[in-house]
Amino acid sequence: MKYIKIVLSILLFATILSANTVTIKFATLAPEGSTWMNVMREFADEVKKQTNGEVKIKIYAGGVQGDEKDVIRKMRINQLQSGGFTGVGLGAILPEVRILDTPFLFESQAEIDFVKQKFFDRFAKGFEKKGYVLLGWAEVGFVYIFSNYPLRKKDDLNKVKMWMWEGDPLAEALYKTAGISPIPLSITDVLTSLQTGLIDGVYTSPLACLGLQWFTKVKYMLDIPLANSMGAVLVTKRSFKKISPENQKILLDLGQKYFNELTRLSRIDNENSIKEMVKNGLVLTKVQDKKTLDEFLQLGEKSRRELVGHLYSQELLNQIEGAVNAFRNKEK
To answer: What's the half-sphere exposure (Cβ side, CA atoms, 13 Å) at 53?
Structure first.
């Protein structure tokens, strides 16, 4: 009888302990060994430590749970509870967030940081309405155009067989405004298409261009940022509610800390990637005069207008552009 009571006590304790523990299954396309994954594992360890093991994060890296749309689908049916997304995945949940990825919106990292902080609460509320909690921004970084033809002015884009990420409305709007007919492909088909000559122009971050080996099939990089590619970590509201208020605060605070650090490190990785590709023969082409630069900026402005009513409102566009311009005037 005494033995049975002991066993029952142990089982009761284990049940209580289990009830207080929340395991969050997190998935990302980022590969093991990358800066992204190194920071994510540090974040998971710190969450476990500060919550005394009451919140655990189980990580699935390298796309083993599928692409971003697969991860979103699995989060909706509770097979996964969290994910790290690029703007494409974020936009599938909250279309208006893609405004942060629009062409030629930002000229500096300081502008990006200012806007991200200023509009964090707005986008966090938007994600919450969709059933998700925004733990923090984790940007991919500035995106550049890489090609086998030197781009020195806007019209040079017409000489390039440009790739478009299949289903990306931002790229579609930019190409439409520029009068370009792109070749839509999934990311997994890009390297082969560069090898066969189906395409000879792509847009991506320097780190991705290096890591995906696309740089081995292109010769030039236009040395002005096409856009800034945002990223973020989301957790389902359903699983977040299972966490105690104290641990929710820990998760949110650590999210801000670690994903801000991830952004800082990603920027360094992108700078180093450009240097590495240049060492291997990549040539940087620069816009030669203000008139040419203005042509690119006007192209970005027109494409942003093209997306009003499709992804975001005119009001939000005015607010974002107004914040950027106010920051620039203050800096000047």
So the answer is: 3
Where is 145: in which H helix or E strand?
Answer: strand 141-147
- Residue 162 has a CB neighbour count (10 Å cut-off) of 22
Neighbours of 144 (CB within 10 A): 21
**Per the structure, how many domains does the chain have?**
2
* Cβ-based burial of 128 (10 A; exposed 0-12, middle 13-18, buried ≥19): middle
Nearest CA to 245 among 18, 45, 51, 48? 51
| Host domain of residue 237 | 2-140+230-272
CA distance 249 to 31: 28
Distance of CA 9 to the CA centre of its chain: 48
Per-residue pLDDT of the chain (332 residues; tens, 9 = 90+): 555 544 444 444 444 444 579 999 999 988 888 899 999 999 999 999 999 999 999 999 989 999 898 999 999 999 999 999 999 899 999 999 999 999 999 999 999 999 999 999 999 999 999 999 999 999 989 999 999 999 988 888 889 999 998 888 888 888 888 888 999 998 889 999 999 999 999 999 999 999 889 999 999 999 999 999 999 999 999 999 999 999 999 999 999 999 999 999 999 999 999 999 999 999 999 887 888 889 889 999 999 999 999 999 999 999 999 999 999 998 87
Do residues 135 and 40 both lie within one domain?
Answer: yes
Rounded distance between C-alpha atoms, residue 209 and residue 144, angstroms = 9
Answer for the pair 99, 316: CB distance below 8 angstroms, yes or no: yes
CA separation for the pair 42, 39 (Å, rounded): 5
Q: What is the pTM (predicted TM-score) of this model?
A: 0.87
Whose CA is closest to 323, among 111, 100, 101, 107? 111
Task: Say yes or no: 12 and 117 in one domain.
Answer: yes
CATH number of the domain bearing residue 44 = 3.40.190.170
Rounded CA gap, 192 and 194, in Å? 5
